[in-house]
Structure formats: structure tokens, C-alpha cells
Amino acid sequence: MVNDTALETLYKTVDQNQDDYVERLREAVAIPRYEARDIGCHDMDGVNLQLPPIILGTYGNDPNKKTILVYGHYDVQPALLEDGWDSKPFDMIETPKGQLVGRGASDDKGPIIGWLNCIEAHQNADIEFPVNLKICFEGMEENGSEGLEELISKEADKYFKDVDAVCISDNYWLGMTKPCLTYGLRGICAYKVAISGPGKDLHSGVFGGTVHEPMTDLIHLFSKLVTPSGKILITGVNDDVALLTDAENQMYKSLEFSLSELHSAIESKTTIFDNEIETLQHRWRYPSLTLHGIEGAFSSPGFKTVLPAKVTGKFSIRLVPNMDPNRVNELVEKYLKDEFAKLGSKNTISVECLHGAKPWIANPNHWNYVAASNAVERIFKCKPDLTREGGSIPVTLTFQDALNKNVLLLPMGRGDDGAHSINEKLDRSNYVQGIKLFGAYLHEIASCKDE
Amino acid sequence: MVNDTALETLYKTVDQNQDDYVERLREAVAIPRYEARDIGCHDMDGVNLQLPPIILGTYGNDPNKKTILVYGHYDVQPALLEDGWDSKPFDMIETPKGQLVGRGASDDKGPIIGWLNCIEAHQNADIEFPVNLKICFEGMEENGSEGLEELISKEADKYFKDVDAVCISDNYWLGMTKPCLTYGLRGICAYKVAISGPGKDLHSGVFGGTVHEPMTDLIHLFSKLVTPSGKILITGVNDDVALLTDAENQMYKSLEFSLSELHSAIESKTTIFDNEIETLQHRWRYPSLTLHGIEGAFSSPGFKTVLPAKVTGKFSIRLVPNMDPNRVNELVEKYLKDEFAKLGSKNTISVECLHGAKPWIANPNHWNYVAASNAVERIFKCKPDLTREGGSIPVTLTFQDALNKNVLLLPMGRGDDGAHSINEKLDRSNYVQGIKLFGAYLHEIASCKDE
Ligand SMILES: [Zn+2]
Ligand SMILES: [Zn+2]
Q: Is the distance from CB of A140 to CB of A51 less than 8 angstroms?
């Protein structure tokens, strides 16, 4: 049973100390070395600089308590005032509407400082911390989390050994008013397809009409991958997509999402579906295929009468349960080679999978989710949206695979926070309520009857 | 009747003075300001420099003689030793095999110095010059002949008024051993097709599957333009292509051309046709369509999960008689818009014709060609190949349209001269025989019975 009185005290403490917490976030935003590109190993001169540290920490070690691992990242996207910010990106300000504006305020310093504030609030309020907490805060997330996977595998049986569940706070509410728990992410298979013909670029006047043009072949192949309405045409690829159940379909009906929000996000009305539910289902639980571009063809402004000798098309498929990257690779390679053979071209093809990541889905009925859901009801007086995302957050899969524990994505910020954009913000209320949410979530975990 | 004795004397004079002529070509190659980019109006800082002069000159003014206009250009492509030249590009050398190697040796200083040598040889041999000669040597050919068309129109009724026929020496033999006269060039219509959707580039994970992707639309449209075997699919575009007559087909049988030469030129065996005749016909007398590339999509090495907001495809169609650029534009625009409508996309399309140039074809039975053909037989003891070219030489059409006179392309160099490439060369024998050829051509003109 959750001690409601203790929680009320905790909330009061958080409210009373909120200006201090905001100040700490301001300090965190101001630390310029948190921009990983400045200290990462990807410097332009090829010098191998040291990776920024992955911060591990343990708070509490009581065998009678659950152990919860929280993940966040302290590195941020680059930001310059000249990019168009209304204020200096590393000097966090608060707007009259209570928005904390600064690079990293929402992605992802708000959440990580929030976890630390949550510990401190318990100390200030003199309330026993309900779980053993382990933190894992990295500094390379915006650069592919280099070094993290190795560390997690290496420490799976050591530092991470007693973890009972994982909580990642590095995504966003679906909309602006209703909190969510996120239980699924799409995976990805990324490909390049190279078509080679002549040994060098040719003049289209001299050779056009007499040689098999690699660009023509590639365009024909690409046109056979996906329809303009988004249907993937690769034989067999859709076969493993999990069927939509009634229960799942039902869940979509209560989500805080409107097409008009989507239209303003994409700055056009060029959406395929005319309703919210199909739109979200095609973002979250159906695969998609995007043609990203072509390397080796003429891509500059202006015009050039070139007949490119070798062109490399790039595309990717977003994967959903129960698609498997290896199986998708087989299907894609076979399909492309079969279709290429039908073209009757003397050019040559090569297909390469650049990257594969499985889709991720968690059981939203697990105690980790139930606790989070109860905590949302406590703080926000409503049931959270149960959401998935169309993109991937690779660390989610890494933790799940390495630790084999339930992973929960519990966002702090709103859908319009503008992570990676100019004027990134975190609403003060999201920050303060978020700290309370983290606390309530941990207390709910401590009291839940599991296993 | 041609005075054979006078011609024999002329040939001897040319042979005797050939080292002087080579020296003059060496001097011409050495003049660095002949690189038009250095003096043209296209400088990098946007400063409007003066155009290099177009050199006009008249030699002879006898109303009883024909007046022949010869065109050439004294500007050259840029060249740096670092590009891979075996010798300094502006210090012309002669190899042991008798190749004069230097930038511009063949394109196009050899021919223009050749015309001047031809005049001088007549003076040295004390032979009456058989025609009135007018020269038009420009210095912007490699940069689009800026300023030339205006001058030709302006002077059509003045300087160019009495011209009876035009001779352009700025192309090449089809092969390495047999001279040719060139009587046709393909035209071109160049297009860009822009497909716009979202207001900004999107993340393919978040939005893939829910929005109409401009890249997918463009790929589908592009796939409907041309087949992998080069057949143009645009409704009506092939209707105006002149039918191949038996006589024309016959002409292809004697041409000096082999697929193996073509294979070494393109550094692959990816030709569409397995025989020389169809190959040349599709280079010269059938249209072709090349997809050049796409602006706005991801075109760098590596991978990026971008869903491009606006993509602009570039393609061009090579035109042949009796295709008309305006008619082709209409057909292309209608076809693209019809096909786009079939896609059912909410994106928008715009089609723009960037450039249109008519195909050019001359009557190879005109006295200008007959004279040149006879001259070739005199010098090379064989009938010339009658060739066309797949690309365009815009000045050809400009002269024909402005002066309404027969235009002949009479090349001096061989097919392997490497204009625009490193180690550009002109064989000494082509240079020396070329000067004789120019002379014999003018004498044949003087004696031909025309009109
Ligand atoms: Zn983040
Ligand atoms: Zn030239």
C-alpha cells in the first residue's frame, strides 16, 4: 500500500523547492562541455579523443526493495544563437508562460536532473526512498551512444545485476496536455542499392540511348518498393506484421492526438489517412518504407547533362512486431535481385544492409507500467495515453536484451518541446510535476504486488 | 575545274612548312589567357569582367568568288598538371608517335591555326585564294558561347551578309583512321520536376507511413518516363521522329565504328544494342531520355533517416528531326501531370523546361558537302564517313538559323583526341593533312557547279 501521507509531504517539498530545482537545471544547461561533439571521439581531424564518461550510481542497497534502473543522457544537440534562437541556447531562461528555454532543457537534462531532485526531495522531506535506484547517464546519445552497449553487456551481471525494471525518460508526450507511457518503438533496416554500368560518368548527348543507364535501372527498382500511398511492395515483408487486435484498436480511441497537430508539425496537409487512428497505427504498428536519396547522380542546383556511371540508392524500412531484421534482409535482397533481373539491364547490382534494429515492444500490463500508470493518475488525475513511437531509441532495446527486464519509457516533456530544434523548452509545470511523478512511480513500484 | 597542279603545289608548301605550322600551334597553346574562365564574365566574385573578343576577319572580297565563313574557338577547358597530365598542359610537346599534346591542341586551336596556315600556304605558294574567307573565332565556347548569338544576329545582314556557306571545325572523326563530314546533331529539352509535400524535411521514423513522400512520388513519375532499354514512354513524343529510310540506313553500313571502341570509351560492355548500326542510330537519329539526378534528397555518402520535403528531379530528352522543342514541352508537361494525378498523392508538382534546342540536320548533298567530300577523297583517298552526333554544338544551329545557309561540320582531329580530358592531343598528320584538306575544300567549292 502506498503511503499517501508520505507522498503528499513529498509533493509539498517538491513544490516548495521548485525554484532550486529550476536553478539546478539552469546550471546543467549552462555547462558547455555537455555538447558531446566537442569532446566526443568524432572530431574532424581524426584524433581519437576520450569518450565522455557514462555515469553509473547506486542509491540504496536494501535487499527487500526493488531495484530500478533509470537512464538519461547529459549530452545535447549543437546549438548556436545564429541558428535562430530567441535567447542564448546555453543560458536557460524562463518565459512569462513558464517555459524553461535552453538547449537540453527537455532533451535530456530536465529528466536527469529531475531524478536527482527526486532523491533530494525525499531527503528534504525525510521520507524513506522506496526503491534501490541505479542511474545510467551517458554523454554520447546524440552521437549514437558510442560505448554504451559494450558497457551494458559488460556490466549486465555486475553493476546491473539486481535491476528489476528499467525506466527511460527520453521521449515526449504525444500531445500537449496528457501524459503518456510508451511501450513500443519501430525497428529499422537501412539499405543501399548500388547500380553500376559505365566505368565513368558519360555525356548524355553522346551516349544517351545506347547504354543501359544505371540511374534508369535504379529508378525502376525504387518504384517497385513502395506505392505513393505507402504500401510496401516487397514480397513477403508484410507477412510477419502482427495482426491488429480489437483490444489494441480500442486503445487508440482515447489518445490525445489530432490530425491538425500533425499538419502543423509537418507544415502541410499531405497526410495519407484522413483520420487519427489509422495515422497513428501507420506511424507505430505498421511498417513503412522511405526512399531517402541517391548518391552519385547529379544532385546540385542547376543542370548538368551527365549520365551517371554508378548510382547508390538509400532506403530504409521501419519494422514492427513480429518482423525480424534478418528475415527482412533476405526478402529485400531477393526481391531487388529478382526485380533487377526483370529489367533486362546489363548493369550490375549490389545490395547492402547498412543497419538493422529490431522493433521493441513491452508488456504494458507489467507492474512497471501499472506503477507508472497509477503514478500518472495520482499527479495528473487522468489515465496516461499508452503510446508507441515510429522511430527508434536504440538504448531501449539494448537494456531489454542485455538485462531481460521490463523497460518503460516515461516521458517528462510535452510533444511540442522541440528537442533538436531552436528554442527547445521544458514547461516548468512538466518539470515540477515530472519530479513528483518520478517519486510517485517509485512509491507505486514499492507497493505493487508482482510475480 | 579544280587546278590539280596548283593543289599539288599547295600540298608541297604545306609539307615543307609544317614545322612552322606546328610551332604556331605551340605558341597558341601556350597563351594562358586563352582559358576563357580566367577572363570571362563568370568570375567567382561576381565582378562583371569583359567578355573575350569575338574575332571577325575577311580575307578577299571578290564578287566572282563564293564567300565561306569558318568558325572556331580559341578558348579551352581548364587544365592543370595536377589533373594527371603527363606533360605541362600549356607547353605543347610532340610525342615520338607524332602526337601534339597540349590543352586546346585539338579543341579547338589546331583547326583555327590551321585556317590561318591555309591562307599563308597560298601566299607562300603564290596560288590565288579560291574563295572569299570570313572568320569568326570566339573565346567563350567552353562557357556557353556567351555573346555570340547576339553578335551573329546583329551582323547577319552586315558582316555575314555575303556568306554562301558555313564550315565549322570543332568536332571529331568517328574513329581513328577515316575522316568524316557531320551533317546532324541532336537537340535537347532539359526539365526539372519538383514535388513538394511537407514544409520541412521530416524524420522517417516519426512520419514514415503517414505522409505522402515527395521522393516516392518522384520515383514513380521518373519510372514512367523511360524503360531500362531506353524506350521513351511519354505519350506522343516518338510520333514526330523521322522514319528511317532505306537510303539513310544504307549510309550506316560503311561507317568506321565498332562496338569494341564504344566499350573502351565507356569502360564497360553495358551497351543496349549488340550491333554497330542500331547503336549509332540510337545515338544520332533517335531520341533518348536521361535521368540526371535528384536535388533535395539525401545524396551524400553514408546514411540519414531523412524524409525529404521537396525533391527536384532533372532529366533531359535528346531531340531528333522532326521533333520540335515546344511540342515536346507540351507533351512532357501533360504526361507528367496526368501520371502524377494517377498517383493519388496530396503533394504538389511543378514542371519546368530549363532549356530547349532544336535538332539540326543539313543536306549532305549540298555543294558545301560535295566539295568537302571531294576534298577528303583528294587528301585521304577515301570517301568520308557521313556522320551525325548525339550531343549538340549550339553554334551550328545559330549560324543556320541566322544566316539560312548550309552549314558543314568538317573535323580535323580523331575520335580519340580527348578534348576536355587530360593529355588532349592532335596528331601531327591530322594537323598537316587538315590544312591541306581545308585548302582542297575551298578549291573544290570554287569549282563546283551549284544552284
Ligand atoms: Zn534525448
Ligand atoms: Zn570545341
A: yes
